Please model this.
Amino acid sequence: MTVFTCILLGFLVVCAVAASLSKKLLNTILIFMSYSLVMSIIWILLESPDLAITEAAVGAGVTTVLFLVTLKKIDAIMKKDEGEKKDE
Model:
């Protein structure tokens, strides 16, 4: 196993732990997106380009967009002006 692959696997573990311990939903979604992108790189290294493309498209693309739209619909993402007014 190469050093690069070991670093990527370590980053996957860090992303998984960080996503489960994160308090903010938006941060969790961004961590999940980076997890999917690293996983697609690992699929490329394992010489499985079809899985890599699927992971990148579905895991990092479609799922992230759906999560962000859901957060917007339930008003979990505040507008910048609203957040500043609540702090005053």
